[in-house]
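Lay summary. Proteins are chains of building blocks that fold into shapes, and those shapes determine what they do. In this project we predict the shape from the chain. Here is one chain we studied, written as its sequence of building blocks.
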Amino acid sequence: MIEAKRPTINWMDALWLMFLVVLAVLPPRTEPHKQLILVAFGVLQLSENWLVSRLPRRGPSYVVLIKIGLAMLLIDHTTSVYEPSINSVYYPIYYLPLITAAEYFGSWGTLLWTTLASATYASYLYPALHPELREFEIGAESYELLAIRILFFFLAAMVVNRFVVESKRQTQRYQELAETLAETNRRLEQAQAEARRSERLAALGQLSAGLAHEIRNPLGVIKGSAEMLSQKLKDSSPLAIELAGYISSETNRLSSLVTRFLDFARPLHADLAAQDITTILDRALHDVATLWRGQPMRIDKDYAADLPLVAVDEGLCEQAFVNIVQNAFDAMSATGGVLRVRVSTANANGSDGVEVRIEDTGPGVPLELLEQIFNPFVTTKKTGVGLGLSIVSKIMDGHHGSIRVEDASGGQGTGARFVLFFPTAAEGVGAKKSAHLVIS
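And here is the predicted shape, written in a compact code that computers can read:
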């Protein structure tokens, strides 16, 4: 059956109502049953959509049956007692249930309903054909005229049904094209956003490399001078030795920051090999948990069975996991919490792979930062620099994977969920073979 969605009152309903009004003023005008039947047709036409919406499966059948019954009554009450009802000039009223059936049903359904309607119309021959009720004589021309009328019933029903089917097919085609175009636009916008971010990261990387190089040399001089000063003074001036220690420790901190800038700026040389992602993930979880000195944390793991191998650089991949897990531990450091890790197969942008979900119960990422959290210098930590997740994003881009952050609480503002996708290893990259990749 064809699913039809029609407006409450459309122009076709208005046209049918005008048609019924014109029939009401035509002879026989004084026949009350005729007027009541036309009113019933009008009420049914206006309430048809309501009935079909309430009974989507049986409603169309009820509507067609009622219209066939009303058509039979109208034929019966629009002829005189001196001629058979089949001669009623109102026989075209049967086109109304036929068109309705053509709108709601497929080709076979339309044929069945048209056959039923034609049979009800032909049933008016019964008084003339019954041996005991031969009230009228039927000639050969009358049979031919009846056959012509019934053939036109079928012709009209099938033409309308053909139009409805083609219209529905074209509508579905346009909807599919619109959905495809929307998906293409979404991917294009995503690609443009990634291209803009890559350009910003490249420009920032060049600037960071130059700036870090210029800063590292004076830092080396400052650190060396502080150490020499401490050795010269020894125990003669405790205050000067303490200040020199401050200089040395802060110089080390700045040197570590410069190193992170250089890590972000320089190209990453990745040796890709087919790896079991859960092994790398377990090692990262163990490393972070072993060095953690804050509130107790619980790690819940859910790894799917028979996971495919993925082509990754073991060291870079572990670095990405350590960064995300460390951030999760830091976010839950105040009261402790639960880190949920789930690994399963997935499909992203038409590629099969493995999806890793790392979810914490911390305060989460503010909604206004969800789209910017992977940009450089964007951080939720008071002492953070904002390069860690940028490096993770760079690593994932270099592995032809993806990373995104979600609100784990569904809008409650608590908990962050990082979703990483790794494509499966290509056939040419086996467990013993590797491919070199430069991530710039």
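What the prediction tells us: Strands lie at 268-275, 297-303, 310-312, 337-348, 351-359, 402-407, 416-423, 434-439.
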